[in-house]
Amino acid sequence: MSVTHSLLEYKDANGKVYEGDLYVPKTTGMRKLPGVIVYSAFRGITEFEKEKAQALAQVGYIALAADPFGKGIRPTDKMECFGIVRPLVSERIQNLKPVILAAVDAIKTVQCIDAEKLGAIGFCFGGLCVLDLARYNIGLKAVVSFHGTLKPLPDVPLDPIVGTAIQAHHGDADSHIPKEQVDEFHVEMRARNADFVFTSHAFAEHGFTEPEADSFGLPGVKYNKKAADRSWSSTLALFKEVF
């Protein structure tokens, strides 16, 4: 399916401006289509996130690669990226929540979107973002986290997650996400009565979906094609189910 690409400018609740990459199937006609938001890893929007959004559009979804940093802010140095991400992660409700909700509101403005059929995927830092969206109970049909941080929101009641199917894809050899965090995630999801699937991919390390991961120069971060392909297939199957 052919796809159109454009830039979508939007603001968060604090007035900060963002610019995401929007991919729309060309043959929409008058039909309303489901939408999927792609939340990036620590580097922000790269070709990887764009390719994932495009792939989603090619199977019939409107897809938005969400901008986590702000319009015109595209750092390439990893330490600069970490410097931007760190305050978002350290204050998830105050700093990160407006950023991730802004992208959800933005995709709802797209022509031909079915605002009742929205989902989200996220990688690493983005995995944390989509799990938080599920925790906020904003009505997404499904979220998928790839090698994402699994820590629960601090000082927040474990209210039930209603109507959102969750997939969490984890590398069994991921040294960045300790076993204690994995165990705590299961406890949280059970306490929230969540519809969740947790998949631990054998031999996969952190960042296993990212083909360029081996070049990042970060210990314990490595591409694993088998885990990347299997987790992506599971993602497409989930969206086909819920949409």
Structure description:
This protein has helices spanning 47-58, 78-90, 92-107, 125-135, 179-191, 225-242, and strands at 3-11, 17-25, 33-39, 62-65, 113-123, 142-146, 165-171, 195-201. It is of the alpha/beta class and 243 residues long. The protein has an eight-stranded mixed sheet with strand order 1-2-4-3-5-6-7-8, with helices on both faces. The longest helix is centred in the last third of the chain and has 18 residues, at 225-242. It is globular. The chain starts with a strand and ends with a helix. Pfam families: DLH (PF01738). InterPro entries: AB_hydrolase_fold, Dienelactn_hydro, FrsA_esterase.
Describe the SSE topology:
Layout: E1 3-11, E2 17-25, E3 33-39, H1 47-58, E4 62-65, H2 78-90, H3 92-107, E5 113-123, H4 125-135, E6 142-146, E7 165-171, H5 179-191, E8 195-201, H6 225-242
Parallel strand pairs: 3-4, 3-5, 5-6, 6-7, 7-8
Antiparallel strand pairs: 1-2, 2-4
Helix pairs in contact: 2-3, 3-4
